[in-house]
Design goal:
With about 230 residues, the chain is an alpha+beta fold. It folds into 3 domains: about 60 residues, OB fold (Dihydrolipoamide Acetyltransferase, E2P) (Beta Barrel); about 70 residues, Orthogonal Bundle (DNA polymerase, domain 1), CATH 1.10.150; about 50 residues, Helicase, Ruva Protein, domain 3 (Orthogonal Bundle). The chain is built from 10 helices and 5 strands, in the order E-E-E-H-E-E-H-H-H-H-H-H-H-H-H. Helix 3 packs across helix 9, helix 6 crosses helix 9 and helix 8 packs antiparallel against helix 9.
């Protein structure tokens, strides 16, 4: 199983990229959102990958973060959801958007992705709602930028003709929003709130104030969780 690739971009198409890893080319399919963040031809790149092997098919799917990869794994575990639909959902919402939509039971946002009907969107939310807290917590713990020595060790120097004056673009580190949501989720869990209730409250608080830090999210989520009346 191939779980991660580090190499150089050989070429980019609309929905896939060819990564040259020490002379071996790997064709990797990605969501529209991921494709838009990838570096130019000739530059260094690293992607987490998921490999699908069937009798008539062997394909790699690429992700810029472990959270995105985990959502792909969970989405494709839902009946009727294949890799193409999963990438469409991730491309439309992004991993944080998927976390928020599923935690809130917002199947209408999931349905906005190309190829997703209302019944499929409702099934996704129903099947994965209890998984959202765990994936949201991943955002502030193990999601790391993919650069530095690990990438340099695999990527060989480019040929002189392929050299560019541009500084290679590095993959983004985990966002502050993801870390804040994960911290708030952990804090609410420590206060005794159930994972599903806590995830829904944090997702709603983050949606209302995307720039909020962890303390602000905790306070907002606690207000949402407070008994009404």
């Amino acid at each position: 199983m191939i779980g991660k690739l580090s190499g150089r971009v050989d070429y980019k198409a609309l929905d896939h990229i060819l990564i040259d890893v020490r002379g071996v080319g790997y064709l990797v399919y990605c969501s529209d959102r991921t494709m838009a963040t990838l570096p130019s031809v000739g530059e260094a790149v690293a992607l987490y990958t998921d490999m699908v092997v069937r009798e008539d098919l062997m394909q790699l799917y690429g992700f810029t973060s472990l959270v995105e990869k985990e959502w792909h794994r969970l989405l494709t575990s839902v009946q009727g959801v294949g890799a193409k639909v999963s990438l469409a959902i991730l491309g439309t919402l992004g991993p944080e958007g998927v976390s928020r939509a599923i935690a809130l039971g917002d199947w209408a946002s999931v349905k906005a992705a190309k190829g997703v009907g209302p019944k499929t969107a409702q099934r996704i939310v129903l099947d994965l709602k209890d998984k959202a807290p765990g994936v949201m917590a991943m955002g502030g713990t193990i999601d790391q930028a993919m650069d530095g020595p690990a990438l340099d060790a695999v990527v060989e120097p480019a040929e002189p003709a392929a050299k560019s004056n541009k500084t290679p673009r590095k993959p983004k580190a985990p966002s502050g929003a993801a870390a804040a949501s994960a911290g708030a989720l952990s804090a609410l869990g420590n206060l005794g709130y159930g994972p599903s209730d806590a995830a829904a409250a944090v997702a709603e608080a983050a949606g209302n104030n995307p720039e909020a830090g962890e303390p602000e999210l905790i306070r907002a989520a606690l207000r949402l969780l407070a008994p009404k009346g």
